[in-house]
Queue: 2 jobs
Job 1
Amino acid sequence: MITRSVQTVQTNPDDIIDIRQKIAGSWQEILSQAVTNPQELLDILGLDQALLPGAVVGSQQFQLQVPHTYIARIRKGDPNDPLLRQVLPIGEEMVITPGFSFDPLGEKPKNSHRGILHKYQGRLLLMPTQLCGVNCRFCFRRHFPYEENTLNREEWLSAFDYIRSDTSVTEVILSGGDPLALNDNRLAWVVEELAKIPHLRRLRIHTRFPVVIPQRITKELLNWLTGTRLQPVMVIHCNHPDEVDADVADAMKLLRDHGVQLLNQSALLKGVNDDADVLIELSERLFSCGVMPYYLHLLDKVQGAAHFEVDEQRARQIMSGMSDQCSGYLIPRLARENAGASGKVVIAPLYSLKI
Ligand code: SF4
């Protein structure tokens, strides 16, 4: 009998970044090569040409944009793939639906200062860019006037002054667009300026980049994110377990190993994740990468996304199904945000939570 000695190779976690970038390219290259042409997406995925007219007309209102790193996780030839549904424009997006709005959260009145949304007590949103790693068809800001919120240097300084003048603000939330679409030099400067404001404690980043283009977790990003006195919290937006592949898991591990608190929020989407078993698997996979479930949002009622809506009764059934089968800490809080409200509303469970 032949016996082999097994050598354990210790890989420096930071080397994973280099290896990943060598294989897939830099995140900027991946982003610049994202598919924006509906015909190209259908061809890559071997999908029926009957989907083309809807994809073209939907993309005219809100452009298709999906990087190859995400397309690689979509099943070929399956028009009902849950990841595809999140990114492929369809004709129903053009249907005007009663009860849905172009500004579903009533954000315009809270956007009095350029680049800032101040709608919560004690915290505010800084929106540094209109760009995203992917354009999600259910996005509640698909009609948001980002062009009115792109900041030049003077406007950045003015935004910092605004935050400095309100000592009740302890947390700044970088939101979007997707804040990680900015380059690391700019983000490092922003965080440096924020850290000078004494009453700030935390920096929270809402982003879909680690899920869509995990190559975005660069050494430079880890440097500015963890080299500040502000406590870093990252809320990734992950909706389906198929989104969590090995690269995403590696990116999560790197962030965790560098001390970043990781949370997930999902949107509850018909035909994507409106199923207890799917959401349990999502929580399991994320937890195994060090990400805690945080919120499960009912759809924000934005025009163009009505076909994703799951009603509250069905949402409660799903939550109940999750509660029957998994530990309480794996269950996100079911929440909704009402237009003009000062925060999200957690929908009280009608089931007994097993912890
Ligand atoms: S990444 Fe976020 S902000 Fe960007 S399109 Fe998707 S949901 Fe909207």
Job 2
Amino acid sequence: MRTGDGDGRADVADNDAVTETTTLDDRWAVFDRWGPYGLLALSTLTAWTAADALGMSTGARRACGVLIVAAVVLELRWNRVVRTRPGPSAAGARHYALRWAVGFALTWANPLFAFYAVIGYFSTERLLTRRLRKAGLFATAVTLAGSQSGGLPPSGELGWALFGALLAANTVLVLLFSHFADLEEARGRARLETIAELERTNTALQQALDENAALHAQLLVQAREAGVADERRRLAAEIHDTLAQGLTGIIAQLQVVANTADPALAREHVDRATALARHSLGEARRSVHNLAPAALADDGLPKALEKTVAEWEERTGTPARFTTTGTVEPLHDEVAATLLRIAQEALSNTARHARAGRVGVTLSYIGDEVTLDIRDDGRGFDPRVRSARTLPHSRLRSSGGTPTGGFGLDGMRARAERVAGSLDVESEPGQGTAVSARVPLVRHD
Ligand SMILES: Nc1ncnc2c1ncn2[C@@H]1O[C@H](COP(=O)(O)OP(=O)(O)OP(=O)(O)O)[C@@H](O)[C@H]1O
Ligand SMILES: [Mg+2]
């Protein structure tokens, strides 16, 4: 995995460490395979050259010959065994002991065979278990000290003293080196463990990144779906508040025309229907371009509400009063448009459903909130029954699947919530209706 330059460098370092360990192991394998033959050949050559000078007897020479052959056979046999059982084992310990015995006997016959016996120092780790290593090193040190002190057995007290001192020196040195080797090995092991840990962490990190990517993709899809649903709600509200409301008004006007014989009255209502159609068309165009309602294009919210209420009064013939309380502040376009649309729908509902005698619309600026109340003294309704009836699925006719209406109150609430506000409807049959919207006072920027 590559998560950046830093990680990349760490990976390269890990690979280097692993390669380094492998190369070292390979070299030791070559030494284990060929080293004993090389050292045996070297010691045989030097021992033979110095045989006369050392006064070797013919018997000793023959014994050496037999031992050399034994050593070669031993190594050949071991090279076959080691393939199936690499690393410290009982078989390895046996091979070490036999090789030591042959080396000791050869060095006894001619001290120059110590060149062969020294191999004992280099093979303890790969042949002996940790428990036997020190014993193996000491045994090899005995052979080497014997050779260094002039040959085995030592002669005389001085010879034994020299042998003893050399054995002590060899043992100390060898144990010291073995200690450092152990430390180095421990460090190597720790390094390998760190590398393994790093790999595990890298894998876990990669998994976390993969999961994160999947989660991110899922979130994107959800966000898109939420955006689509939100836009669909907005469009539904816009269609309801422009086209649907306009068409309702036009139908009402045309019904009057259809039911009257008076041409002047018919003319008046046809004109109103035409004006409503024009107005609705304009509003629909504005909502397609996501513009504020036409009434707000020239005036602030109080003025626009006042005109709306006056027009409504004129159209319906129901007395309506508009009041403002608190200090008027210029509102953010979105907030002003929300309140105007709510007022329009509430008034439309009053005209269609309430049969009211009077209507009051109040806009109040209270601290950091603006409230809009639309009250009528009409026939009222039970909001709980309505909310049960207009749950989303019940809005569809079982036969045709087209909406049956009932969007107005939900649309008003959705508009208020969109600008972090709320909407309350208080009504009871025969007790009139009060629609109250409460939104945060966000000033015009
Ligand atoms: N001022 C009111 N007086 C009496 N009843 C009302 C009033 N406002 C709403 N209602 C009742 O609540 C119902 C739901 O109103 P809502 O505005 O949600 O739908 P609608 O007006 O019937 O249809 P739409 O607004 O979708 O054209 C109305 O059908 C009506 O029965
Ligand atoms: Mg309605």
